[in-house]
Design a protein that fits this description.
The chain has 585 residues and is mainly β. The termini are far apart.
Amino acid sequence: MQLKTVLISLVVLLLFGSGNPDPYPDDYFASPLKIPLFLAGSFAEMRSNHFHAGLDIKTQGRAGYRVYAAADGWISRIVVSPGGYGNAIYISHPNGYMTVYGHLDKFSDEVQEHVKALQYRQESFAVQSFPSRDQFKVTKGQQIALSGNSGGSSGPHLHFEIRDERTGWPVNPMLWGMEVVDTLPPRIYRFKVYPIGPGSSVRLQDARTGGWRVLSSGEDAFIELVRRNGKIVMERVKKIEASGRLGFGVQTHDYHEGSTNRLGAFRITLLNGLSTLFRSEMEQFSFDQTRYINAHVDYQEQRTSGRWVQRSYLLPGNELPLYEASNSGILQIEDGANYDLKYIVSDAVGNTSEFPFQIEGFAPSSAPQSFAPVDGLLMQHDNAFTMRNGPFLVRAPVGTVYQDEFIRHNRSEREIQGAIYSAVHELHDPLVPVHKRMTIEITPSDLPEDLREKALIASVASNGSLSYAGGSWDEGAVSTNVRAFGSYAVAVDTDPPSIRGLNISANKDLSNSGEIRLRIRDSFSGIASFRGLIDGKWVLFEYDSKYSLIRHRFDGTVPRGNHVLDVYVVDQKNNESHLSIPFRR
């Protein structure tokens, strides 16, 4: 009986493998490019208001490299957009994952024909298609496109993602064994200390003068790091003493051979002795959660200095699934205790840097603390919020801020570069991050009735310049949804967009040209739509929003002879421009 049980167990093991198979086998996905992989961007690298969802693979500064399917599957989605990923292909695979290929120049011929037919049918450059499972089957290593610079790309490269189709979450492609040559450990540049809550403080002893710098709750300080004799050590600080509750943050970046781009680290661990005080690991995340990056990092530091400091403690409203933390990563300092701490930073292939440091505890001050009077109305991170102050109203849903804030509102009459129809309303502090959209409403003081349909909310910069924040007139006020604290006012947009021919002018002969190119721009609310007609019939104009460029490639739809081009452009406030140009071909 026992022998039979053992034999059955062996058969099951041989047939199905161990109970914990590798969730990311190295041999399933191949490289989407057949050139050496050098990265301009890594998975979960920090970007403005979001984590990067894939790998940005360099293409030697040019478009036109062949892009290949990373595994067997079928094209399940095709997108053409003037921004974002531009021309993009999504391939579903039998293992339950999807690969994404963005900023493409051209699709394969059969896909390109499918897309073009859809664009003409819908009379739109921007289209989206969801082919059936059998329409565009692909095999591993099959060419699907050419690399490019379409959409929101800042230079030619291939954006490549792997997503779990069950959840839609992107997963770190480096865990699947992408062949990037990398023997370089991450670099740790500096770390921050944050006294948290009443009674907490930090003392930093200067390594040269022996003097002390004292930080109280609400303050923070950088501690610069250097490498000496193969070890990372503090540069200007000899000793750290603290009392109360203490948080930490670290500035670190990863690199690999052949690329000077700053990439994101995979794992950051902060040890207290042998115990993990805090750990973040960039394995996967949800697109719905990516804006929580503003709680993951020191937002104020990033906005003021450009440095990406990753917190090693959790703000109350941070819901990212990336962490393992004891007491939210906050260290409680006791009088007379010594703490041996260590940062360990690793990349996805296991290269590691370490930085140990010590903190000595001292007794908190027994002197009574004085607090400045609180100005503003409390916005709690876990409650909805409404504040009205005269002609200004703000409504915010639960989860708008990451920690409780006393919200301030002031009215300013400062000089503005442009006409406005209200006071400038200063809403709290632009260095405090906002997660969810707030509704703001401003009742204008002197808005003429004939301008109501052109009214909008403008964001007012520190130099007085205005930028479009959306909005429309409704029942005596102008309202919009915003995702940032700052200064706002009512303005109007009555100026139509501009249209300028680049290689076309009245009666020009384009017989030897392969395309028509024009530049379309709007100075305020932005372009909402455009249409290009030749002899009264819609023709495809490709739109590259980053260059404000539209172009029609002669593809056989326009015969030789005399023609008339008409271009119509409409902005977000329905101001329209029309350019009509006769030409020959």
